[in-house]
Write a structure and sequence with these properties.
Layout: H1 2-11, E1 34-41, H2 47-61, E2 67-72, E3 84-91, E4 113-118, E5 121-129, H3 130-137, H4 150-171, H5 199-206, H6 213-217
Parallel strand pairs: 1-2, 1-3, 3-5
Antiparallel strand pairs: 4-5
The structure holds zinc ion.
Zinc ion binds near residues 168, 176 and 184.
Length: about 220
Protein backbone atom coordinates (compact mmCIF):
# COMPACT_ATOMS: atom_id res chain seq x y z
CA UNK A 1 0.00 0.00 0.00
CA UNK A 2 2.75 2.40 0.96
CA UNK A 3 4.67 1.61 -2.24
CA UNK A 4 1.65 2.31 -4.42
CA UNK A 5 0.97 5.59 -2.78
CA UNK A 6 4.62 6.61 -3.14
CA UNK A 7 4.61 5.55 -6.79
CA UNK A 8 1.55 7.63 -7.46
CA UNK A 9 3.13 10.67 -5.88
CA UNK A 10 6.28 10.20 -7.94
CA UNK A 11 4.39 9.71 -11.19
CA UNK A 12 2.33 12.77 -10.67
CA UNK A 13 5.54 14.84 -10.82
CA UNK A 14 6.94 13.18 -13.96
CA UNK A 15 6.89 15.34 -17.09
CA UNK A 16 4.58 14.18 -19.86
CA UNK A 17 2.18 12.46 -17.48
CA UNK A 18 -1.40 13.43 -16.88
CA UNK A 19 -2.09 17.06 -17.70
CA UNK A 20 -1.48 19.28 -14.74
CA UNK A 21 -4.34 21.14 -13.19
CA UNK A 22 -4.55 24.66 -14.60
CA UNK A 23 -2.47 27.10 -12.60
CA UNK A 24 -4.57 29.54 -10.65
CA UNK A 25 -4.32 31.71 -7.62
CA UNK A 26 -3.50 29.86 -4.44
CA UNK A 27 -6.32 29.55 -1.93
CA UNK A 28 -6.31 32.54 0.40
CA UNK A 29 -5.12 30.56 3.39
CA UNK A 30 -2.07 29.24 1.47
CA UNK A 31 -0.84 32.53 0.06
CA UNK A 32 2.05 34.16 1.91
CA UNK A 33 0.85 37.23 3.77
CA UNK A 34 1.54 40.47 1.93
CA UNK A 35 3.29 43.24 3.87
CA UNK A 36 3.44 46.81 2.66
CA UNK A 37 6.42 48.71 4.09
CA UNK A 38 5.74 52.42 3.70
CA UNK A 39 9.04 54.29 3.76
CA UNK A 40 9.16 57.91 4.89
CA UNK A 41 12.57 59.54 4.48
CA UNK A 42 13.61 62.81 6.12
CA UNK A 43 16.08 63.34 3.30
CA UNK A 44 16.38 61.56 -0.01
CA UNK A 45 18.56 58.52 0.77
CA UNK A 46 21.49 57.44 -1.34
CA UNK A 47 20.00 55.15 -4.03
CA UNK A 48 22.59 52.46 -3.28
CA UNK A 49 21.60 52.53 0.39
CA UNK A 50 17.91 51.98 -0.33
CA UNK A 51 18.56 49.16 -2.78
CA UNK A 52 20.89 47.37 -0.38
CA UNK A 53 18.52 47.84 2.57
CA UNK A 54 15.63 46.24 0.69
CA UNK A 55 17.84 43.38 -0.48
CA UNK A 56 19.26 42.70 3.00
CA UNK A 57 15.93 42.88 4.84
CA UNK A 58 14.32 40.62 2.22
CA UNK A 59 17.15 38.12 2.75
CA UNK A 60 16.62 38.14 6.53
CA UNK A 61 12.86 37.58 6.16
CA UNK A 62 13.10 35.12 3.25
CA UNK A 63 12.52 32.00 5.41
CA UNK A 64 9.13 33.42 6.43
CA UNK A 65 7.82 33.59 2.84
CA UNK A 66 6.38 37.04 3.62
CA UNK A 67 5.58 38.92 0.43
CA UNK A 68 7.27 42.28 1.09
CA UNK A 69 6.34 45.37 -0.91
CA UNK A 70 8.26 48.61 -0.38
CA UNK A 71 6.61 51.91 -1.13
CA UNK A 72 7.88 55.46 -0.77
CA UNK A 73 5.35 57.63 1.01
CA UNK A 74 4.91 60.99 -0.63
CA UNK A 75 2.35 63.57 -1.52
CA UNK A 76 -0.53 62.07 -3.44
CA UNK A 77 0.75 58.56 -2.93
CA UNK A 78 -1.93 55.89 -2.72
CA UNK A 79 -0.59 52.75 -1.08
CA UNK A 80 -1.54 49.32 -2.33
CA UNK A 81 -3.70 46.87 -0.39
CA UNK A 82 -1.79 44.46 1.83
CA UNK A 83 -2.53 42.05 4.64
CA UNK A 84 -0.39 44.19 6.91
CA UNK A 85 1.04 47.67 6.52
CA UNK A 86 3.97 49.11 8.47
CA UNK A 87 5.16 52.71 8.29
CA UNK A 88 8.92 53.04 8.59
CA UNK A 89 10.13 56.57 9.22
CA UNK A 90 13.82 56.94 8.38
CA UNK A 91 15.27 60.00 10.11
CA UNK A 92 18.44 61.83 9.19
CA UNK A 93 20.59 61.10 6.18
CA UNK A 94 20.71 57.43 5.21
CA UNK A 95 23.84 56.65 3.26
CA UNK A 96 26.61 54.14 3.67
CA UNK A 97 28.95 56.59 2.00
CA UNK A 98 28.57 59.38 4.55
CA UNK A 99 31.77 60.42 6.18
CA UNK A 100 31.92 59.77 9.88
CA UNK A 101 34.33 62.65 10.39
CA UNK A 102 32.77 65.24 12.62
CA UNK A 103 30.02 62.96 13.90
CA UNK A 104 29.34 64.11 17.46
CA UNK A 105 30.21 61.59 20.13
CA UNK A 106 27.31 59.33 21.11
CA UNK A 107 25.40 60.08 24.25
CA UNK A 108 23.77 57.63 26.60
CA UNK A 109 22.09 54.54 25.18
CA UNK A 110 22.20 55.67 21.56
CA UNK A 111 18.79 54.48 20.33
CA UNK A 112 19.01 53.46 16.68
CA UNK A 113 15.34 52.64 16.19
CA UNK A 114 12.11 52.44 18.11
CA UNK A 115 8.48 51.45 17.69
CA UNK A 116 5.49 53.42 18.86
CA UNK A 117 3.22 52.05 21.57
CA UNK A 118 -0.25 53.41 22.21
CA UNK A 119 -2.30 52.32 25.23
CA UNK A 120 0.02 49.37 25.67
CA UNK A 121 -0.40 48.24 22.04
CA UNK A 122 2.45 48.20 19.55
CA UNK A 123 1.26 50.17 16.55
CA UNK A 124 2.62 49.59 13.03
CA UNK A 125 4.87 52.65 13.04
CA UNK A 126 8.60 52.42 13.57
CA UNK A 127 11.36 55.00 13.43
CA UNK A 128 14.94 54.35 12.42
CA UNK A 129 17.58 57.02 13.00
CA UNK A 130 20.17 57.04 10.23
CA UNK A 131 22.28 59.74 11.94
CA UNK A 132 22.44 57.76 15.17
CA UNK A 133 23.57 54.72 13.20
CA UNK A 134 26.48 56.76 11.82
CA UNK A 135 27.35 57.92 15.36
CA UNK A 136 27.23 54.32 16.56
CA UNK A 137 29.80 53.33 13.95
CA UNK A 138 31.97 56.33 14.84
CA UNK A 139 32.52 55.06 18.36
CA UNK A 140 36.28 54.65 18.83
CA UNK A 141 35.80 51.43 20.79
CA UNK A 142 34.57 49.73 17.61
CA UNK A 143 38.09 50.19 16.23
CA UNK A 144 37.04 49.93 12.62
CA UNK A 145 40.35 49.25 10.91
CA UNK A 146 39.54 50.21 7.38
CA UNK A 147 37.31 53.05 6.26
CA UNK A 148 36.54 50.97 3.17
CA UNK A 149 34.49 48.71 5.43
CA UNK A 150 32.22 51.53 6.55
CA UNK A 151 29.61 51.41 3.75
CA UNK A 152 29.00 47.70 4.21
CA UNK A 153 28.94 48.01 8.01
CA UNK A 154 26.47 50.88 7.77
CA UNK A 155 24.21 48.85 5.46
CA UNK A 156 24.47 45.83 7.71
CA UNK A 157 23.58 47.87 10.78
CA UNK A 158 20.64 49.50 8.99
CA UNK A 159 19.17 46.17 7.86
CA UNK A 160 19.48 44.77 11.39
CA UNK A 161 17.75 47.77 12.93
CA UNK A 162 14.96 47.72 10.33
CA UNK A 163 14.47 43.96 10.74
CA UNK A 164 14.34 44.42 14.53
CA UNK A 165 11.66 47.11 14.29
CA UNK A 166 9.70 45.09 11.73
CA UNK A 167 9.66 42.19 14.20
CA UNK A 168 8.11 44.49 16.84
CA UNK A 169 5.49 45.88 14.51
CA UNK A 170 4.55 42.69 12.64
CA UNK A 171 4.35 40.55 15.77
CA UNK A 172 2.82 43.46 17.74
CA UNK A 173 5.21 42.78 20.55
CA UNK A 174 7.51 45.07 22.51
CA UNK A 175 9.43 42.12 23.93
CA UNK A 176 13.14 41.53 23.49
CA UNK A 177 14.84 38.16 23.49
CA UNK A 178 18.33 36.89 22.82
CA UNK A 179 18.01 36.26 19.09
CA UNK A 180 19.58 38.06 16.14
CA UNK A 181 16.47 40.12 15.38
CA UNK A 182 15.07 40.62 18.87
CA UNK A 183 18.21 41.43 20.84
CA UNK A 184 18.54 44.88 22.40
CA UNK A 185 20.96 46.48 22.60
CA UNK A 186 22.94 45.27 19.62
CA UNK A 187 26.52 44.23 20.27
CA UNK A 188 29.47 45.09 18.06
CA UNK A 189 29.99 41.39 17.38
CA UNK A 190 26.47 41.20 15.90
CA UNK A 191 27.68 43.16 12.90
CA UNK A 192 30.17 40.46 12.05
CA UNK A 193 27.60 37.67 11.87
CA UNK A 194 24.89 36.64 9.47
CA UNK A 195 21.38 37.35 10.73
CA UNK A 196 19.17 34.32 11.16
CA UNK A 197 15.59 34.10 12.32
CA UNK A 198 14.80 31.34 14.79
CA UNK A 199 12.26 28.66 13.79
CA UNK A 200 9.68 29.99 16.28
CA UNK A 201 10.10 33.49 14.84
CA UNK A 202 9.64 32.19 11.29
CA UNK A 203 6.49 30.34 12.37
CA UNK A 204 5.05 33.41 14.13
CA UNK A 205 5.73 35.68 11.14
CA UNK A 206 4.08 33.22 8.76
CA UNK A 207 0.88 33.52 10.76
CA UNK A 208 0.48 37.28 10.56
CA UNK A 209 -2.38 38.57 8.48
CA UNK A 210 -4.17 35.25 8.43
CA UNK A 211 -7.58 34.57 9.87
CA UNK A 212 -7.41 32.73 13.17
CA UNK A 213 -7.70 28.96 13.15
CA UNK A 214 -11.29 29.29 14.34
CA UNK A 215 -12.21 31.62 11.51
CA UNK A 216 -10.60 29.31 8.94
CA UNK A 217 -12.76 26.42 10.18
CA UNK A 218 -15.86 28.35 9.16
CA UNK A 219 -14.72 29.13 5.63
CA UNK A 220 -16.91 27.02 3.31
ZN1 LIG B 1 13.39 46.61 20.26
Amino acid sequence: MTTRILLFLLLSFLPGGAPAAPAGPLPLELRPPTVGVMLKFDRQPAPAFLKQLQKDVAAILRPTGLDLHWEMVGAGHHPGAYDRVVVLEMRGYCSGLRSLNGEPPPEGGLPLGWTLINNGEVIPYAIVDCDQMARALAQPQLRIQSRQLLPSLYSRLASRVVAHELMHTLLRSADHHDSDCTRSPLRAVDLTREVRLRPNEVAALREIGRPSGTALAHVP
